[in-house]
Write a structure and sequence with these properties.
It contains five helices and no strands. The termini are close together. The protein has one domain (3-69): lambda repressor-like DNA-binding domains (434 Repressor (Amino-terminal Domain), Orthogonal Bundle), CATH 1.10.260. It is an all-alpha fold and 76 residues long. The radius of gyration is 11 Å and the shape is globular. It has helices at residues 3-20, 25-32, 36-43, 51-60, 65-75. Helices cover 72% and strands 0% of the residues. Helix 1 (3-20) crosses helix 5.
């Protein structure tokens, strides 16, 4: 699978989960301890993010990193 496709699906999943919490990108970025522009680029599938960032995003969404990745995998 092309890396771009995986990054796009990951970003779409993060956006859906963020929106289900009713958070703006800025609110979510604060919760995750990340910069708003970074979160935006993740959601657009422009970043191949680190394990650390994946962990922060998952924790902010009140889920495990493995649960987040399982959701992504289900969309592949």
């Amino acid at each position: 699978m092309p890396k771009k496709e995986l990054m796009t699906i990951f970003g779409e999943t993060v956006r859906e989960l963020r929106e289900s919490h009713g958070w703006s990108q800025e609110q979510f970025a604060v919760e995750a301890g990340l910069h708003r522009t970074y979160v935006g680029s993740v959601e657009r599938g422009e970043r191949n993010i680190t394990l650390n960032s994946t962990w922060r995003i998952a924790e902010a969404l009140d889920m495990s990193a493995s649960s987040l990745l399982t959701l992504v995998e289900a969309k592949l």
